[in-house]
């Protein structure tokens, strides 16, 4: 009987953890707009070091931890750079296709000769 219930318990645990992770991500604004993502990143940067220190004290680890690296990352700018690159590539696509086609035809003509 327990052998039949164990896989169900494992599945329920995994689904609960995954659902909780999605809920926390939505609630904190990670799945929202880029501005909400930036705000969530700032909140995380402010909350993680104190929590780490509290847990280190709790477990008795008084070792010196490395300093937090400075992250200069803006999701808004990265998103815009990706959009610009994509639109630029799409606008250059017809020209590139004609160039590659002519190069391919020239290669085939050279092979046939």
UniProtKB/TrEMBL annotation:
UniProt keyword annotation of Zinc present: no
Protein's organism: Ataeniobius toweri
Protein name (database record): MICOS complex subunit MIC13
Keyword terms: Membrane, Mitochondrion, Mitochondrion inner membrane, Transmembrane, Transmembrane helix
Main location: mitochondrion
Metal-binding is among the record's keywords: no
Role played: Component of the MICOS complex, a large protein complex of the mitochondrial inner membrane that plays crucial roles in the maintenance of crista junctions, inner membrane architecture, and formation of contact sites to the outer membrane.
Pfam families listed in its UniProt record: QIL1
Family classification: Belongs to the MICOS complex subunit Mic13 family.
Taxonomic superkingdom: Eukaryota
Cellular compartments annotated: Mitochondrion inner membrane
Membrane topology summary: Single-pass membrane protein
Subunit organization: Component of the mitochondrial contact site and cristae organizing system (MICOS) complex.
């Amino acid at each position: 009987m327990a052998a039949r219930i164990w896989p169900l318990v494992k599945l329920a645990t995994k689904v609960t953890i995954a659902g909780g992770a999605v809920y926390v991500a939505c609630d904190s604004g990670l799945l929202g707009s880029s501005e909400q993502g930036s705000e969530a990143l700032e909140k995380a940067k402010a909350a993680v070091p104190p929590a780490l220190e509290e847990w280190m004290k709790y477990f008795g680890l008084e070792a010196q931890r490395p300093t937090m690296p400075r992250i200069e990352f803006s999701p808004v700018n990265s998103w815009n750079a990706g959009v610009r690159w994509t639109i630029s590539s799409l606008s250059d696509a017809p020209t590139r296709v004609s160039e590659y086609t002519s190069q391919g035809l020239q290669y085939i003509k050279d092979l046939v000769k």
